[in-house]
Fold this sequence. Notes:
This protein is α/β, with parallel strands linked by helices. It folds into 2 domains: 9-41 and 273-383, Lyase, Ornithine Decarboxylase, Chain A, domain 1, CATH 2.40.37.10; 42-271, TIM Barrel, CATH 3.20.20.10. 31% of the residues lie in helices and 22% in strands. The chain has helices at 6-10, 41-58, 75-83, 93-102, 116-124, 135-147, 170-182, 201-220, 237-240, 244-252, 269-272, 299-304; strands at 11-14, 17-20, 23-24, 35-39, 62-68, 87-90, 107-109, 129-132, 152-157, 186-192, 227-229, 262-265, 276-286, 291-294, 310-312, 326-328, 337-338, 356-360, 379-383. Residues 68, 71, 89, 110, 194, 197-198, 231-234, 266-270, 364 line the site of pyridoxal-5'-phosphate (PLP).
Amino acid sequence: MYKNSLINNIISENNNELLIKGEHFEKFLSKEKGATLIVIKDIISDNCLFLNDVIKKATKNSFTVCYAYKVAPTMEILEVIKERGMGIEIYSLTELEMALSIGVSTIVVDGMYKTDELLTKSIQNNVTIINADSIKEIIRINEIAEKYNIIQDIGIRVKKREDSKMGISVEQIEQFLTTLKSFHNVRVIGVHIHPGSNASEEVVINSYLKMFNMFKVLRNAGFLIKYVDFGGGLPERNIVEKSLLKRISEYIDAFEKHEDIHYIFEPGRFIVGDAGIIFSRVLDKRVDENLIILNIAVMPYFSNTKSTFRYMFPSQIKYEPKGSWRICGLWPLDQDEISSEALYQGVPKELEEGDCFCILNAGAYNIDRIEEYTLTGDMEIKYI
Ligand SMILES: Cc1ncc(COP(=O)(O)O)c(C=O)c1O
């Protein structure tokens, strides 16, 4: 069973200062490096358990949760995923090789354009399913599989909007049905969509209705569609925890009358988002301008990650917000600043140069771009 209060056990406070696993936070910060991304593996592990439990409550159908590896693509994280018995969603040859190297059992291959090398290796290694992104890609998969005398299971990635560059529309598939039925080396057994990362509820529900439509068209055409893959899109666990069961139940609702379906979920952010904390320091306090300058840029977080921003001053957990301090990053750009609305709990007056500032919910879409945060690649990634 997952432990509901695990995060509270991992992150606590003493004397108004942050403790991680019972130790003062400074213990985890490198003296040499100016900033640190701490990734807490127990939180990742617990998020996997929690999500599994909730999906189990929502449906009697079978399902597999496949971590979207691109969201934080490191071996350390993959090992936790493997330990939890989860599958993996990959979109490049490197990711496939990492997954194969540690023997992940369920591998879903996604991606806008899959190279011949990726397709060949996926087919040869008997991946669970390849979600085809275009009609041309279905033709390529069939050709490659034929070369190796293999019948490859594929899913159809559904366009979430007519003008989306990703996926295949119902109209496209309808025009292609006769040819598709003549292919001997692909077996169409799945539908797939990804509503977008941290997408609004409306977009998510509309996307899943589109996928349901494709599901019906393909089943009516005689394809035994078994896999229904909902992609990712969930927010961080700390944002969605209480409403998760309701959300998942709504997502799967249209499919629930079919008992012969196996669901796939491809969460990334939900699994790793709240497991990552960026620790930075105040470089400069410009009292005459009410400016705090950090030793990291803040723009990459806001422009790249679509994360739900939460922050903390780990040496002053509770404080009386004073004045109207602005918090800026060190990129030479005026836009590299945390907006005043985002600073929803204000800034302590007592903040000094050298003090820490934490960006919480920083585990998703950061690890592979971490060098963007500093001018000198001066951010350490620490797994604890
Ligand atoms: C196909 C696919 N599945 C899953 C994900 C993971 O999304 P999230 O981190 O929002 O769960 C992504 C992210 O881009 C994706 O492209």
